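Our preliminary data section would be incomplete without showing what the modeling component actually yields. Below, a chain of 495 amino acids is followed by its predicted structure, encoded as tokens that our downstream tools consume directly.
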Amino acid sequence: MTQLTDLTIAGARDALRAGDTTAAELTDAHLAAIEGAGALNAFVHHTPEIARAQATAADARIKAGDAPAMCGIPIGVKDLFCTKGVASQAGSRILEGFKPEYESTITSQLFDAGSIMLGKLNMDEFAMGSSNETSTYGNAVNPWKAGNSDAALTPGGSSGGSAAAVAARLCLGALGTDTGGSIRQPAAFTGITGIKPTYGRCSRWGVVAFASSLDQAGPMTRTVRDSAIMLAAMSGHDPKDSTSADLAVPDFEAMLTGDIKGQVIGIPREYRMDGMPEEIETLWQDGIAMLKDAGAEIRDISLPHTKYALPAYYVIAPAEASSNLARYDGVRFGHRAKLSQGDGITEMYEKTRAEGFGDEVQRRVMVGTYVLSAGFYDAYYNRARKVRALIKKDFEDVFADGIDAILTPATPSSAFELGAMKDADPIQMYLNDVFTVTVNLAGLPGVAVPTGQDKRGLPMGLQLIGKPWEEGALLNVAQCLEDRAGFVAQPSKWW
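Predicted structure:
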């Protein structure tokens, strides 16, 4: 049989039910892999005792014939998800020592389905970053190398630890969150699949908030089928989350026929940007050819307000972050600064937040506070909200005109070296989200699929954008793209 850590979720599910392996064996194989992968810094809180207990329970369920699709599947959990009794720091020093007394809805659903938590995964602090370099745990490292270079590469952000762990075969799947591309960009950088569902498809309860109107959790896996399986277990209405949609959850896996004959795929002209690397343009054209060869109609479309997406996003997201992060003050939980004699409550707030928040979080909180302040609220925040409505309408118009899905690049480049943008203008880092933020602003589902490699051998991915609540149809187009691309490359183990 295939090495246990090389199995997909679908393959492991079938092997468990056939009796070819057990959840305990599968768990031990992945725990051993994690032990040997410290150089990647993907797992930051290890939970082997919990994993082994969950594996024992999963084996009992499988033996009894009471086994949902995710039963016995070892996964990693992004540090943004609150897990009962386990450190949940959101990659930040300010939440040091915080162990929730409750479980996030999504992790509860997965554990109820028999999934096994191997540990918590590295991430950019409070999900603010595109390279996993803002984490209090240090950088997560991409398991891929560029050609003959030994330089450490970014796995993307903010779900960098999740992406690195799945690509390096440390877990079969991982939880990520996506506020402006934080599932899709790292998925593309590491050669895996990642889907951001429609806003409201998955509960946000128990997930540490960055920007509440943009955040959405999703699965990160090695195949489209695996994403469909995991997404079904994560989805569903949650009365504890007022933004959770009360809609039935389809059988996403059953919708993966790979047949897209007669479907219309839109190609937005605004995504053809000046200075786009030739390799990204070639990848995009290859993807168009694959879908056309599969029987789809290719149609040029216009999303005219795309050029305003990044500025609008970097007003709205920091504004919401400023509000959400106001609760971290050193009073109720997490880090509290040491005070000098005579210091009062104001000094405690100031010192605690200065010590607890990293540079990028401080930058975004300050920007967000500024755009929400009197005199600037209408000039910046309200104007950005109006632009957001126009971006959403652009998508509504093209879908109403018969478009079934939209194909774009996922990232403007392949993975770059860690530290490469350290001294650059922060806007250069923000440009990594140029192809992905529109999807969050419009609340749509988007999926990144690995479809090729650059001249240095690094993976590159394409993004598909779908209609709201039609993740099954979107994943079916992604399945077709995956089948045609035939991406099977893996990083060579060096860690």
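The chain has a mean pLDDT of 96. The longest helix spans residues 377-400. Preliminary results of this kind motivate Aim 1 of the renewal.
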